[in-house]
Amino acid sequence: MPLEKEDYVEPNCPFCADTWKKEKKTERIPVGRVFEKLDGYFAKNDYAAAERHLLYWASEAEALGDKRGLFSVADEQMGLYRKLGKREEAYAAVKKALALVKELEMEKSVAAATAYLNAATVYKAFGEPEKGLPLFDAAREIYEKELPATDGRLGGLYNNTALSLCDLGRYAEARELYEKAVAVMSKVENGELDAAITWLNLADLAAAEKGYEAAEKEIGECLEKAEALLNAPSLPWDGYYAFVCEKCASVFDFYGRFLTAKELKERSKKIYERA
């Protein structure tokens, strides 16, 4: 059930008109609570509820004139609509988020870099990887300057940039970034999941660059490394683990590793059912 306004707007003293006017101008949507609820929907794999949730809070942010809150919601909508395959809505979210980056004069911030990254992945998902490359470059410039070398966001950036480069046939550049992504994720807590995804991406790169038969050994090595990482005993079996297992299962299926794919699908299903 959506929160009512009285759930997140602090009451004001009726006798303090000046204070009320001042505070009213700074009303904000409760971004932390919005994202906490959103994570709950993702943990249940309930994307329809997640979409309704974000639409509700986008309208609330609009009504309050909360542009920073609206930016935060639009940033999340980019990823959600990309997953749902809703091109028109995803592109609208990209346009809104990037416009707010400029309007709020936050072009060089880490938050802006994340929006650039999300926008670039939207373009990649809908067949325009070349359109996203300048955005990846802008995000990389900020991330590498502002984040420590062991920050998981860097690994995600390298991995996603490499995916677009692969689509454009720029395999050597993509391989270099995949290797950088693995190096970063090896130093991040629970980074095994994203590292596993990267190893599977490396398998796809090898197949695309050399052909399956010529790259069969390399592909097999990549698959084995990914499987070992997914089986790391320290990993929490949470919503993100379920999402990664489901995503990776299709790759193992594609390369004929049917038992591994089946096991990953069963793990994912169990996690979503208990959420």
Mean pLDDT: 91
The fraction of residues assigned to DSSP E strands is under 5%
Outline the low-pLDDT stretches: 1-24
What's the overall geometry?
globular
Cα Rg:
21 Å
What order do the SSEs take from the amino end to the carboxyl end, as H and E?
HHHHHHHHHHHHH
What would you call the structural class?
Answer: mainly alpha
Number of strands: 0
Number of helical stretches of at least 4 residues: 13
Largest sheet: none
Percent of residues in helices: over 70%
Quote the distance from N terminus to C terminus. Answer: 17 Å
Please, could you describe this protein's structure?
The chain is 75% helix and 0% strand. The protein is mainly α and 275 residues long. Helix 8 runs antiparallel to helix 9 (171-185) and helix 12 (239-254) runs antiparallel to helix 13. The longest helix has 19 residues, at 192-210. The two termini are 17 Å apart. Mean pLDDT is 91; it is low at 1-24.
Summary of the model, kept short:
By secondary structure, the protein is mainly alpha-helical.
Features:
globular; mainly alpha; 13 helices; disordered N terminus; about 0% strand; about 280 residues
Helix and strand topology:
Layout (H helix, E strand, L loop, with lengths): L16 H8 L6 H13 L3 H18 L2 H18 L2 H17 L6 H16 L3 H18 L5 H16 L3 H15 L6 H19 L5 H15 L8 H16 L3 H17 L1
